[in-house]
Design brief:
Number of strands: 13
Helix content: 25-40%
Strand content: 15-25%
Radius of gyration: 19 Å
Shape: globular
Distance between the termini: 40 Å
Length: about 350
Amino acid sequence: MSAKGPVLVTGSAGFIGFHTARQLLGRGEQVVGVDNLNAYYDPALKKARLERLTAFSGYRHHTLDLADRTGMAALFAEHKPRRIVHLGAQAGVRYSLERPESYVDSNVVGFLTILEGARAVGAEHLVYASTSSAFGANGSLPFSVRQGVAHPLTVYAATKIANEAMAHSYSHLFGFPSTALRFFTVYGPWGRPDMALFKFTKAMLEGQPIDVYGHGAMERDFTYVDDIVAGVIAALDRPAAVDSGWRAESPNPSTSGVAPWRVLNLGAGRREPLMRYIAVLEEALGVKATLNLMPVQDGDVSRTEADVTETRAALGYAASTPIEIGVGRFVDWYRDFYGV
């Protein structure tokens, strides 16, 4: 067992949580995983990820809902994890238009149980997932953590901004460091079926057209999952500190003069046209896509790009996987997993 005790990873059967837990286990950490295995998307995929984690002797799993206050308090009391990687949440921008209450339950009430647990064990560091969707109506690219996030376009984004504010208050009041990581469009093996790359691949292999929003004119900061996980673990290993260079009267939106708290972007630091992403997928699959061009969906933005200046300075972080490599690895995994 690590001298620092186990790391708690929430959402451990989810896409990014699975990859993060596996990386931590691979370097010899003891990991306590939490996931409720809900049916937002195919639970069989979550269970397949979980099977690969339980093969490690250092992994202990709890099937538990984050909003279960009693259950989560008992978990913290049992394992006393002082390092926490909170990746569990109700995911999906568009689904938040249909089921906003599920986002409040999981992402707000559930985050409160994490903060209370961190307070109870005297956490050494809480690292948690935020989102590039927090930038909302802000059209100034690249998105910098020094920009304001007062205008979210979805309930999902609003809950993540709430997480950042809640964490600041707890870090200030109770002294434990917290780091929010705003993820930009993450893709790769074991990805979520509701995300574009997964949906495109499935449809193209089945000879079906793909829905392309924004009439194909959208641009995204596509970030390969291994690059995201490298940033998550680098952040975990480098706890946030009080930024004494900023006075409370005029704080930097990404740090705090009164709390060991920070916000960092995790992205590739470049944007790719959606049509190029599709072209790379066509090449990897050997299949030409039939495009169903559609308008931008409610809550979506046309372009994203991460400014990773602060992330590079704080963590030495730089994403290194081009989409040609990342998309190819996803296709290889998809064909193997589904026997296509």
